[in-house]
Hints:
The protein is of the alpha/beta class. The chain has one domain: Rossmann fold, CATH 3.40.50. The protein has helices spanning 11-19, 26-31, 50-57, 69-83, 90-96, 106-116, 139-148, 154-164; strands at 41-43, 62-66, 99-103, 121-124, 168-174, 188-191, 195-201. Helix 6 (106-116) runs parallel beside helix 8 (154-164).
Amino acid sequence: MTNPIIDFTSGSVDHRRKFGGGRGQGLPKACGFKNGVTPFVVDATAGLGRDGFLLASLGAQVVMIERSGQMFELLSEAMARARDIEQSSPEVVEIMARMSLVQGDAKDVLPQISRDRAPDVVVVDPMHPPRKTKALVKKEMRLIREIVGPDEDSFELMQVALKCARNRVVLKWPQKADPMANLRPASHQILGKSTRYDVFMI
């Protein structure tokens, strides 16, 4: 298996930063970004770090949590490269200054973070349920699944997130998937092409 390459300085991540639509994108809207409002965000399921990077590029302080040791190492290396002014741009170095990464189970780490400063928003993007369509999942996502494995405790994580967030929890979910079982109804939803953001106001 070839590890997915995490790169915050070029490619699709950099393109999204420059041309993605800024605060008008679905995730920032779901997180409550408005003129004059830039929340403190915890990304409880860091993955490739792209959502955390997007939110930090819009001015937010972002703490990312990743429990997979292998994914944590890949993210750490990518963040180190992005902080190196000789390999990166001043804009990306500035964004990286607003990002931090913690290794551990978010169910344990979130309460620890909240004791110091409760996040305004917690973003949860678990490994999603099986697709209803027969279309192949992107190769990159298949590789991520191999690294991080299934998130069989996503409901428990949501319960912790709802206790720790000050303002809202955002659940990133496939647009056509059924709601997470046993979870209370979302306050509202932001719909994208293939993804929806279920927003749970506190």
